[in-house]
């Protein structure tokens, strides 16, 4: 199958993308699990800190074979649904703030998550779309009508569906139902059995065929074990593979890898072809990585002739057996047991 494409990942191998040191451990950790393309996701921080991080990452991404751009999960989030983001660093999605962050990213900001109730007139959504950035709705208290209007205005992804938003309710359907009813919207899903239980995994795939993108939302502890970590400015404790903010107890990302997400989806009853699409072509299309109008050789998530030779061979238990990145086989010694 094509190499996995993870459009929402904060780190792995003991490091976060915000860290000042060598960030290569994070993509290398996920590459060993079959992820050959990923977006480096950043949590909310002061604008000047995020700018500096983006400039540093933009410089290092040029030499990365797997990091294809950046996803800003903050700072344009609702404080009431901030989860593992520091509420002190949340700001409205103004034109000035957007311009600063997009410019700092050097053309590599591919996705921005925002709470649409903060975006009056949806001017921020329209501005980001004009920049060619995919807009995701998330960490929001918005209702169905607001979410639907935001999707109509150009937003096209729902960030980690069911998490950090109101749930489905028969008299208050909320943003999940709005995503169901918007055919152009891709629904991110953390299939780890912690963020989303299996019945809702099945519901998402059944309600939106071909529109679910499996993500990890992984933090530094992915591939590194239990212990104490940081996610942005917040201390996080990981126990039994579950990451929680030390003070509030809020879930702080995951320790998931994409191969494990595929296995969990299949175990939940999703067909293997659908699970593979959700880990490859669907997320790639959602953030503009897979575009059949582009020249050959620039379409991650595809096995078409001319696409990058990013490949994963899974064994009968859906564990990586062999991995190729741009035609070069990843060393067997680097694969997980």
TrEMBL record:
<feature type="active site" description="Proton donor/acceptor">
    <location>
        <position position="217"/>
    </location>
</feature>
<feature type="binding site">
    <location>
        <position position="160"/>
    </location>
    <ligand>
        <name>Zn(2+)</name>
    </ligand>
</feature>
<protein>
    <recommendedName>
        <fullName>N-acetylglucosamine-6-phosphate deacetylase</fullName>
        <ecNumber>3.5.1.25</ecNumber>
    </recommendedName>
</protein>
<feature type="binding site">
    <location>
        <position position="73"/>
    </location>
    <ligand>
        <name>Zn(2+)</name>
    </ligand>
</feature>
<feature type="binding site">
    <location>
        <position position="171"/>
    </location>
    <ligand>
        <name>substrate</name>
    </ligand>
</feature>
<dbReference type="InterPro" id="IPR011059">
    <property type="entry name" value="Metal-dep_hydrolase_composite"/>
</dbReference>
<dbReference type="Pfam" id="PF01979">
    <property type="entry name" value="Amidohydro_1"/>
</dbReference>
<dbReference type="GO" id="GO:0008448">
    <property type="term" value="F:N-acetylglucosamine-6-phosphate deacetylase activity"/>
</dbReference>
<feature type="binding site">
    <location>
        <begin position="163"/>
        <end position="164"/>
    </location>
    <ligand>
        <name>substrate</name>
    </ligand>
</feature>
<feature type="binding site">
    <location>
        <position position="139"/>
    </location>
    <ligand>
        <name>Zn(2+)</name>
    </ligand>
</feature>
<dbReference type="InterPro" id="IPR032466">
    <property type="entry name" value="Metal_Hydrolase"/>
</dbReference>
<dbReference type="GO" id="GO:0006046">
    <property type="term" value="P:N-acetylglucosamine catabolic process"/>
</dbReference>
<feature type="binding site">
    <location>
        <begin position="251"/>
        <end position="253"/>
    </location>
    <ligand>
        <name>substrate</name>
    </ligand>
</feature>
<comment type="similarity">
    <text>Belongs to the metallo-dependent hydrolases superfamily. NagA family.</text>
</comment>
<feature type="binding site">
    <location>
        <position position="195"/>
    </location>
    <ligand>
        <name>substrate</name>
    </ligand>
</feature>
<keyword id="KW-0479">Metal-binding</keyword>
<keyword id="KW-0378">Hydrolase</keyword>
<dbReference type="InterPro" id="IPR006680">
    <property type="entry name" value="Amidohydro-rel"/>
</dbReference>
<comment type="pathway">
    <text>Amino-sugar metabolism; N-acetylneuraminate degradation; D-fructose 6-phosphate from N-acetylneuraminate: step 4/5.</text>
</comment>
<keyword id="KW-0119">Carbohydrate metabolism</keyword>
<dbReference type="GO" id="GO:0046872">
    <property type="term" value="F:metal ion binding"/>
</dbReference>
<feature type="binding site">
    <location>
        <position position="84"/>
    </location>
    <ligand>
        <name>substrate</name>
    </ligand>
</feature>
<feature type="domain" description="Amidohydrolase-related">
    <location>
        <begin position="1"/>
        <end position="317"/>
    </location>
</feature>
<dbReference type="InterPro" id="IPR003764">
    <property type="entry name" value="GlcNAc_6-P_deAcase"/>
</dbReference>
């Amino acid at each position: 199958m094509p190499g996995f494409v993870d459009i929402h990942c904060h780190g792995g191998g003991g490091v976060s993308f915000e860290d000042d040191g060598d960030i290569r451990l994070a993509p290398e950790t996920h590459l060993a699990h079959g992820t050959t393309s990923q977006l480096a996701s950043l949590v909310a921080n002061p604008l000047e800190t995020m700018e500096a991080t983006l400039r540093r990452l933009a410089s290092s991404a040029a030499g990365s074979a797997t990091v294809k751009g950046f996803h800003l999960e903050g700072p344009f989030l609702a404080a009431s649904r901030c989860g593992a983001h520091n509420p002190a660093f949340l700001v409205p999605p103004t034109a000035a703030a957007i311009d600063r962050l997009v410019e700092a990213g050097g053309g590599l900001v591919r996705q921005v998550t925002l709470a649409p109730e903060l975006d009056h007139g949806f001017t921020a959504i329209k501005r980001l779309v004009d920049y060619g950035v995919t807009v995701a709705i998330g960490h929001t208290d918005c209702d169905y009508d607001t979410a639907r209007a935001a999707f109509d205005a150009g937003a096209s992804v729902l960030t980690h569906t069911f998490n950090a938003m109101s749930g489905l309710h028969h008299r208050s359907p909320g943003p999940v139902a709005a995503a169901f009813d918007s055919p152009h919207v891709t629904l991110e899903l953390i299939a780890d059995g912690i963020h989303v239980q299996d019945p809702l995994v099945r519901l998402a795939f059944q309600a939106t065929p071909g529109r679910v993108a499996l993500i990890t939302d992984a933090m530094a502890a992915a591939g590194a074990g239990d212990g104490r970590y940081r996610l942005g400015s917040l201390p996080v404790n990981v126990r039994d593979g579950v990451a929680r903010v030390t003070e509030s107890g809020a879930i702080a990302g995951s320790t998931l890898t994409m191969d494990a997400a595929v296995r969990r989806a299949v175990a939940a009853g999703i067909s293997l072809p659908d699970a593979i699409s959700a880990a490859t072509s669907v997320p790639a299309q959602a953030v503009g990585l897979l575009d059949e109008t582009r020249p050959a050789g620039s379409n991650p998530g595809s096995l078409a002739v001319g696409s990058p030779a990013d490949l994963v061979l899974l064994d009968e238990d859906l564990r990586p057996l062999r991995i190729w990145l741009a035609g070069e086989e990843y060393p067997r010694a680097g694969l997980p047991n």
